[in-house]
Specification:
By secondary structure, the chain is of the alpha+beta class. It contains 14 helices and 23 strands. The relative contact order is 0.11.
């Protein structure tokens, strides 16, 4: 291994193999690209071409004669696109494989053209995703702007990458390409298993509530069996940070009737607020304002959340003690009840809402209490097993998702 080197900013760089060296990006590549007319007029350049057009989140084709409706860059073949947006600066596209001599990208990208004989485009693609480089660029942007800003071209060109010989670059890029494909396949398989396991709770609910027997159960409006329906408390931002545990709408699970308590807000309470908004085991919490898909979602208050208070984006419903409140919370996730909620929800731009009156009108099935209790316990056990499986699968996926970064670290330490 070679000796450690000093970077352009004076920081000590990690050791590299003796045949490698640190280089600034400006030494081995250049930023290219010509601005295109942003006035929405056809550009004569495209009269005979259908060009790949690269934007954040998509890779569309710009067809012949299509209008250019925003600032774009026209760049030549052989370019690697590097996103300027922080924190998405790890997004890199290698567009050297396209046959067209010209392409278009949004101005959110820096088109980097490797210098012939010095830098391989595939190697550059992986080098720009190396965790050490990404972390340094993000830290420099954060220090300079303290916000989600764009990278300055000079900052990128001044960044350093480890550089072996051109032959070694091609060898490393080929190995990484094969390994990344293997990781992507493993990640897709893990995601499919996770999706299948995530569908189990709804399948369990259907096996109970979509039966002929369930259709014969008596029904009542939620308001008829509720002893308390109450909006939560509003507290200004300056009251947050310490004090009483405070449930917010993100504590209502998207996938279960159990509350998500890994992240808890705390709020300073005054007077009799703690007494008025204190939660009791068996209370139901409904998301009052949320996206259309999540509005009306219900969480069951268990012993681990008893005594907490809740925000004004939530509605508390307490039902008669002659009923099993967990059974009702479970039923709120069924397609029948969800359909009622969606028909009652008021839509607005980007969100939907439901009020106490709407909740009171929702019809629920209420078989005899012993049957409610047997069903709720059975569903509870099934979902505990499912949650355990989901946690294991999520850990597996996280491990797989971490492999590319580990591979890149090995590659650019000279360990491949």
């Amino acid at each position: 291994m070679g000796a450690a080197a000093k970077g352009v900013d004076g920081d000590k760089k990690r050791r590299l193999p003796s045949a490698w060296r640190w280089v600034r990006l400006e030494e081995v590549c250049e930023i290219v690209g010509d601005s295109i007319n942003p006035q929405g007029c056809p550009c004569e350049t495209f009269a005979h071409y259908s060009l790949p057009a690269f934007d954040e989140g998509s890779r569309p084709i710009l067809e012949v004669g299509e209008l250019i409706r925003s600032n774009k860059l026209l760049f030549p073949r052989g370019v690697v696109l590097f996103s300027k947006l922080n924190p998405r600066i790890s997004r890199v596209w290698n567009v050297t494989d396209h046959r067209n001599q010209r392409r278009i990208c949004s101005t959110e990208f820096l088109p980097l053209l490797p210098k012939k004989g010095l830098l391989d485009a595939d190697y550059l693609t992986f080098a720009l995703q190396e965790p050490h480089l990404i972390d340094r660029l993000r830290a420099q942007v954060a220090a300079a702007t303290k916000s989600r800003e764009r990278l300055k071209p000079g900052l990128v060109l001044n960044a350093e990458i480890p550089l072996p010989s051109l032959t070694e670059q091609k060898r490393i890029a080929a190995i990484l390409s094969d390994q990344v494909v293997t990781v992507q396949r493993a990640s897709a398989a893990a995601e499919a298993r996770l999706e299948a396991a995530g569908a189990l709770p709804d399948a369990y609910l259907k096996s109970v509530f979509d039966t002929c027997e369930a259709k014969e159960w008596p029904r009542r409006c939620l308001g008829e069996v509720a002893t308390l329906v109450q909006n939560g408390i509003y507290k200004p931002a300056e009251y947050y940070g310490s004090g009483h545990p405070f449930l917010r709408m993100y504590n209502i699970s998207k996938c279960s009737w159990n509350l998500e308590l890994a992240e808890l807000a705390r709020v300073v309470l005054e007077g009799r607020e703690a007494e008025k908004y204190r939660l009791r085991r068996g209370d139901l919490l409904f998301s009052r304002v949320n996206s259309f898909e999540l509005v009306g979602k219900c969480g069951w208050v268990g012993p681990d959340a008893e005594g907490y208070v809740f925000e004004n984006m939530l509605i508390r419903v307490r039902v008669d003690e002659s009923l099993d409140s967990m059974f009702i919370a479970q039923q709120m996730r069924t397609s029948g009840v969800r359909g009622q909620i969606e028909s009652l929800a008021k839509r607005a731009i980007g969100q939907a809402s439901i009020n106490s009156k709407d909740l009171r009108s929702i019809q629920i099935a209420l078989p005899p209490l012993p049957l409610q209790q047997r069903i709720s316990e059975r569903l509870k056990k099934l979902t505990v097993d499912t949650d355990r499986t989901l946690r294991a699968l999520k850990e597996q996926r996280e491990t797989i998702d971490g492999l590319p970064a580990a591979l890149l670290r090995r590659a650019f330490n000279g360990d491949l």
